[in-house]
Amino acid sequence: DKGKRGVSPQFAKELAFALRVGRLDLLAEIGAPIRNDASDDLQNMALDIEQSLPPEVYHTLSVPEVDVSPQAGMGAIVSDIVEHQRPVDHWSFPRNLVSAFVSDLSKLTIIRVAGDSMEPDYCAGDRILVDTGHTTPSPAGVYVLWDGLGVVLKRVEVVMGAEPKRIKIMSINPAYPVYELALDDVRINGRVVGKWTWK
Known about the structure:
Elements: H1 9-19, H2 23-27, H3 38-52, H4 55-58, E1 60-66, E2 87-94, H5 95-99, E3 108-112, E4 127-131, E5 141-146, E6 151-158, E7 166-170, E8 179-182, E9 187-195
Antiparallel strand pairs: 1-2, 3-4, 4-9, 5-6, 5-9, 6-7, 7-8
Helix pairs in contact: 1-3
């Protein structure tokens, strides 16, 4: 053996998925441009590989953690919307546990809380599970949103009867004031559906 081996279709698929490139990109000449549709390959490969895994792995959901650093108080930093952030880590959960609360599991992400305006329910450093597919502030609840100044974590409810539509944005910490904004002036990035509490 000269230290070389052929590349089977299955091995090429798994290697390309691990490297986050399309299978054809993996086999292309050195220096060739990466295709724009490589993401389609990755989605298809992820599905193929997932379905070939044993049940105990197949029933596990991997959720990305993103470094949005939403300020839960005043002076929120301007940030991109949650779902476009690059993951800094991934967390695994039983798929059936999470699917009981969220319809589209691909829209889940994890972020860390910053600031003290949502204490004691959400403290700085807490990790929260956000459904970024839930972008309508109904029902009332805790949402991650861009309020014109930055990305914040707040309790949000629709102001009934207001035209144009407005939302009330509230902190749990009474030291922070309640404020209202037109719904068109904010971007709802997702609804909080879970959190971690360390004891």
